[in-house]
């Protein structure tokens, strides 16, 4: 018999899917999420060769002030922020290509 503390009893458990996330463009297994900064959710899961397509799709779609495309890992941790690329004088796509080349 397992004895749980009151804290453990009150923790809501999250069911994580065992199925891999599917790319919103191709239906293949996704590698990243792409979304807009400052929003609570990502726009979609994408495989690595379609991240640039997703960034292009999001450019100019910010509302209520400027929002920048971001690339997140599958745990939704921000990996790349296009505003940082912009500040360094690089386009969102060139900034992503530079970032992605350093991952390899």
Summarize the structure.
The protein is an alpha+beta fold. It has helices at 6-10, 51-58, 82-87, 92-103; strands spanning 32-36, 44-46, 69-72, 78-81.
Description:
With 104 residues, the chain is α+β, with helices and mostly antiparallel strands. It has one domain. The protein contains 4 helices and 4 strands. Strands 2-1-3-4 form a 4-stranded antiparallel sheet. A hairpin with a 5-residue loop joins strand 3 and strand 4. Helix 2 runs antiparallel to helix 4. The longest helix is centred in the C-terminal third of the chain and has 12 residues. The chain starts with 5 loop residues before the first helix and ends with a helix.
Strand content: 15-25%
Ends: how far apart? 48 Å
Number of individual domains? 1
Largest sheet: 4 strands, antiparallel
**Percent range of helical residues:** 25-40%
How many E-type strands? 4
Task: Indicate the low-confidence ranges by residue numbers.
Answer: 4-16
Q: Rg, please?
A: 17 Å
Which strands sit side by side, in order, in the main sheet? 2-1-3-4
Broad structural category: alpha+beta
Mean pLDDT: 81
Q: Per the principal axes of the C-alpha atoms, what is the gross shape?
A: globular
Q: How many H/I helices?
A: 4
Order of helices and strands: HEEHEEHH
Descriptive terms for the model:
4 helices; alpha+beta; 104 residues
Question: Secondary structure elements and their pairing?
Answer:
Blueprint: H1 6-10, E1 32-36, E2 44-46, H2 51-58, E3 69-72, E4 78-81, H3 82-87, H4 92-103
Antiparallel strand pairs: 1-2, 1-3, 3-4
Helix pairs in contact: 2-4
């Amino acid at each position: 018999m397992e004895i749980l503390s009151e804290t453990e009893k009150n923790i809501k458990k999250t069911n994580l899917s065992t199925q891999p996330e599917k790319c919103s463009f191709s239906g293949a297994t996704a590698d990243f999420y792409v979304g807009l900064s400052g929003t609570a959710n990502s726009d979609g899961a994408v495989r690595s060769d379609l991240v640039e397509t997703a960034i292009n799709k999001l450019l100019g779609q910010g509302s209520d002030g400027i929002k920048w495309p971001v690339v997140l890992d599958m745990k939704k941790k921000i990996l790349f922020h296009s505003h940082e690329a912009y500040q360094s004088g690089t386009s969102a796509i060139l900034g992503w290509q530079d970032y992605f080349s350093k991952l390899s």
